[in-house]
Amino acid sequence: MGENQNISELSLLAGVATGNETAFRSLFDRYRGKIYSYALRLSEDTSLADEVVQDVFLKVWLKRKDLPAVENFNAWLYAIARHRMFDMMKQQAREIQTLEAVQLAAPDTGNNAELSLLEKEHQLLLKDALSQLSPRQQHIYHLSRHHGMKHGEIAHTLNISRHTVKTHLVHALRVIRQHITPYINSIILGSWLLENIF
């Protein structure tokens, strides 16, 4: 049984190496669940686990010509998954630091009409971005930003792990960034000019 499995795998790898998409799909179907479970255990986040699976198999496809030289495909695949998870965790750590250090609220406006307009524009963008979050992400973001609760406090309140809290906040930040990026540079520049020049 194991020998037949190995032969079948070698056949699939040979097919993938030549660019056979059917073989690649079969390989994907065989290993997707294992990589997904591995990523889910580490991240506790289904969307992130899906992202890891996609990234890992994209790497397999891009490296397909190297497959015939791979002696232990299972170990090779998990090494790619571990490396990708390590990169994503480093990215999460950076984004969490940014989320905790940078307040998305506009600067104090006082009675300045221009700054007041910037604040309104910024708040509308933020409101639109927050509306795209899941209810759980909105709740965690609200507890963090508006109640000043630490990750451990949120985790205790919602009966979830600290890592789950961090993951939700990272995703919240990602959604917010994606939404406001097309606009935020002009808002920040305008705010800086008003604060530092006018």
UniProtKB/TrEMBL annotation:
Gene Ontology MF terms: DNA binding; sigma factor activity
For this chain's UniProt record, which GO biological process terms are given? Answer: DNA-templated transcription initiation
PROSITE patterns recorded: SIGMA70_ECF
**Locate the RNA polymerase sigma factor 70 region 4 type domain: which residues?**
125-174
Task: Give yes or no: UniProt keyword Protease.
Answer: no
What range(s) does the RNA polymerase sigma-70 region domain occupy?
27-94
User: Which UniProt keywords are listed?
Assistant: DNA-binding, Sigma factor, Transcription, Transcription regulation
Would the keyword Signal be found if you checked this record's keyword annotation? Answer: no
Leader peptide range in chain numbering:
none
Q: Which family does it belong to?
A: Belongs to the sigma-70 factor family. ECF subfamily.
The name this protein goes by in its record: RNA polymerase sigma factor
The record lists the organism as Chitinophaga agrisoli
